[in-house]
Design a protein that fits this description.
Blueprint: H1 2-24, H2 27-56, H3 58-77, H4 82-110, H5 116-144, H6 149-152, H7 154-168, H8 183-206, H9 211-233, H10 247-276, H11 282-288, H12 290-310, H13 313-329, H14 339-367, H15 374-411, H16 419-431, H17 438-441, H18 443-478, E1 485-487, E2 495-497, H19 501-507
Antiparallel strand pairs: 1-2
Helix pairs in contact: 1-2, 1-4, 1-5, 1-7, 2-3, 2-4, 2-8, 2-15, 3-4, 3-7, 4-15, 5-12, 5-14, 8-9, 8-15, 10-14, 10-15, 10-18, 12-14, 13-14, 13-18, 14-15, 15-18
C-alpha cells in the first residue's frame, strides 16, 4: 500500500499539470518542475534511503518515509503558489526515496528466502496497478473536483499503511554491519546523481551543447567517481562495493538497466503516439494500457513462486525475449490504429514477458545480498531502474527527433509550401510525434508529417525492443540459479543443500554412513 501511494501520486500528477498551470501559473517551466523536482530528489537520494534502512531498520525508515510522504501530500494540496508546490514536491521526492527501497527491504526481512519470489510478485502486481489507476483517477478528480484532491487523496492510504506496519511488520535492531551513517558518501551520491539527472531534465529545453547540460553532467560524473573512491576506503561504506562481486547482483543490475531503459521508452512513446498521431484521448490512452496491468496483476505472484521453485535464470532470459517480441509487434502500428487487432495482441505478448521477468529479477538481485544489506541492494536496483528510464527517454528523444526531421525533409523535398503550411511544419518539427490539420497545411503536408511521425515512432520502439532483448540475453548468459535444498527423510540431518541426492552422499562426509565396530558382548562402538 505504501508503494501504491507513491506510484499513484507520481502518475496522477502528470494528468493534473494543465489544471495546476491554470490555477497557480508558472507556464511550461512551472509544469516541468512540478514533475521534475520530485524525480530529481527521488533519483538522487534513493541510494541514501536504502542505506539508512540498513542502518536504522527498514521498518523505521519505511514508516518515516510513508508518514513524511503523507504530510507533504497535504502541503502540496494546500500550496498557495507554484513555487511552494515545487518545493513541496522536491521534499515529497526525498521521503519517496526513504519509502521505496525500504518497502522491498521489509519484504526481505519478513519472508524466508524460499517465499520471497511470490511476495515480491505480489508487491510488483499491486504497485503496478498505480500506473493505470493514477491517470484514470487523477483525470476524474481533476475534472470533477480539483487538482488539489489528487494529493489529498493520499492521506487515508498513508494512515492505513502506518497502522498496518505497526501491527504486521516486525521491528529490527540497528544493522550490526554498520556503525554509523556514511554522510560523506551520501552527499557525494546526492550531488553526483543530481548532476546527470538535472542535465537530462534540462536537455530537451536547452540542447546538449548548453553549459546547463554538460556542466552538471560532467560535474556529477566526476563526483560519482569520487564516491567510488571514497567507498573503497571508508570504514563503514554506504554502498559495500563487495556486493558487485556477486554474480547475480551485478548481472541483475546490468539487466535492470537494459530492461528499464526499454520499458521507459515504450510507455513514453506509446502513450504519446496513441494521443498525438492515432487520435486517442488521454482517458482512452490510459485505458489502452490497462490489459498490461491486468496481466501483471494476475501473473506476477505466480511467476515469482515458480522462479522460487525452478530458479530465476530461465524467467530472466525468456521473459525479456518474449517482451521484446511483443514490442517488435508494435512496429506494425500505423497512423490508423485498430486497438483489438494492432495494439492489444502486441501488448499482451509484451505483458506476459514482463510479468515473467520483474519479480524473478528483483528477487534474484536481493537474494544475492545479505539481509543486512537488503535496503541498499534495493536502493541500487531502484536507482538503476529510474536512471535507466531517464537516460533512455532523453537519448531516444534526440534520436527520433533526428529521424522525424530526416523523414519529413525527404517527403517534402521539392514541395512548394504555403505560408500556413510552413508554420505548421515548423511547429511539427518541435513536437516530433504529431499531426497537422490538412485544411490548414494541405493534404500532402499532413500526410508527410503523419508518415514521418510513424517512422520516428517505429525507430524508437525498435530501440526499446533491442534493449529489452539485450536484457534477456544477459539473463540467459549471466544469471545462475541458486543452489537448491533437496529433502531426504532417510538421511541423517534431514536435508542436503545444493546437490542431487546421490552426489550429496558422495560429497558430504558428515552425512556418509560410518563404519560400525561390534565389540565383545555385542556392544556397538
Amino acid at each position: 500500500m505504501g508503494s501504491f501511494v507513491a506510484g499513484l501520486d507520481a502518475t496522477a500528477v502528470n494528468v493534473a499539470l494543465p489544471a495546476i498551470r491554470t490555477d497557480l501559473g508558472g507556464g511550461l517551466a512551472g509544469q516541468q518542475w512540478v514533475s521534475n523536482a520530485y524525480l530529481l530528489a527521488l533519483g538522487s537520494l534513493i541510494l541514501v534511503g536504502g542505506s539508512l534502512g540498513d542502518v536504522f531498520g527498514e521498518r523505521r525508515v519505511f514508516s518515516i518515509g510513508v508518514a513524511g510522504f503523507g504530510l507533504l501530500s497535504l502541503l502540496c494540496a494546500i500550496a498557495p503558489s507554484i513555487e511552494i508546490l515545487i518545493a513541496c514536491r522536491a521534499l515529497q521526492g526525498m521521503f519517496g526515496a526513504l519509502l521505496t527501497p525500504s518497502a522491498l527491504a521489509v519484504i526481505v526481512a519478513a519472508f524466508p528466502r524460499e517465499e520471497r519470489g511470490g511476495a515480491i510478485g505480489s508487491w510488483t502486481a499491486w504497485a503496478g496497478i498505480a500506473t493505470v489507476v493514477g491517470p484514470l483517477a487523477g483525470g476524474y478528480l481533476v475534472d470533477a473536483v480539483s487538482w488539489r484532491l489528487i494529493f489529498a487523496v493520499n492521506i487515508p492510504f498513508v494512515v492505513i499503511t502506518l497502522g498496518l506496519v505497526s501491527v504486521a511488520v516486525p521491528a529490527r535492531s540497528r544493522g550490526a554491519a554498520h556503525t554509523r551513517v556514511d554522510w560523506l558518501g551520501a552527499a557525494l551520491t546526492f550531488v553526483g546523481l543530481a548532476g546527470p539527472v538535472l542535465a537530462l531534465i534540462r536537455q530537451p529545453v536547452v540542447g546538449w551543447g548548453s553549459p546547463e547540460v554538460w556542466g552538471p553532467g560532467i560535474g556529477g560524473l566526476a563526483l560519482l567517481g569520487a564516491f567510488v573512491v571514497h567507498e573503497r576506503r571508508a570504514p563503514a561504506p554506504m554502498l559495500p562495493l563487495d556486493l558487485f562481486r556477486r554474480r547475480n547482483f551485478t548481472i541483475g543490475n546490468v539487466q535492470t538497466f537494459a530492461m528499464y531503459g526499454g520499458l521507459g521508452i515504450t510507455f513514453f512513446l506509446l502513450v504519446l503516439f496513441l494521443q498525438e498521431v492515432a487520435g486517442y484521448g488521454a482517458l482512452q490512452a490510459g485505458l489502452a494500457l490497462m490489459p498490461s496491468t491486468i496481466v501483471m496483476f494476475v501473473l506476477s505472484k505466480r511467476m515469482g513462486r515458480l522462479a522460487d521453485r525452478l530458479g530465476p535464470r530461465l524467467f530472466m532470459g525468456f521473459g525479456p525475449l518474449t517482451a521484446a517480441v511483443g514490442l517488435a509487434l508494435m512496429l506494425r502500428l500505423g497512423a490508423h490504429v485498430r486497438y483489438f487487432t494492432d495494439v492489444l495482441p502486441a501488448l499482451l505478448v509484451f505483458s506476459v514477458g514482463l510479468a515473467s521477468t520483474v519479480a524473478p529479477l528483483t528477487a534474484a538481485v536481493l537474494s544475492d545480498a545479505e539481509e543486512s544489506n537488503a535496503g541498499i541492494a534495493s536502493g541500487v536496483n531502484n536507482a538503476i531502474a529510474r536512471i535507466a528510464s531517464l537516460l533512455a527517454i532523453a537519448a531516444v528523444g534526440a534520436v527520433i527527433s533526428a529521424q522525424f526531421t530526416s523523414a519529413l525533409n525527404q517527403r517534402l523535398d521539392n514541395v512548394k509550401l504555403s505560408p500556413s503550411a510552413r508554420i505548421a511544419v515548423a511547429q511539427a518539427r518541435t513536437q516530433t510525434l504529431t499531426h497537422v490539420d490538412p485544411a490548414r497545411a494541405g493534404p500532402r503536408v499532413a500526410l508527410a508529417v503523419q508518415s514521418a511521425s510513424v517512422h520516428a515512432f517505429r525507430v524508437g520502439i525498435g530501440i526499446a525492443s533491442s534493449l529489452v532483448a539485450l536484457g534477456g540475453v544477459l539473463g540467459l548468459a549471466g544469471i545462475r540459479n541458486p543452489r537448491r535444498v533437496v529433502r531426504c527423510e532417510d538421511c541423517p540431518g534431514g536435508q542436503i543443500a545444493g546437490q542431487p541426492l546421490e552426489t550429496g552422499h558422495e560429497q558430504a562426509p558428515a552425512l556418509r554412513p560410518q563404519p560400525v565396530a561390534v565389540g565383545a558382548g555385542g556392544s556397538v562402538g
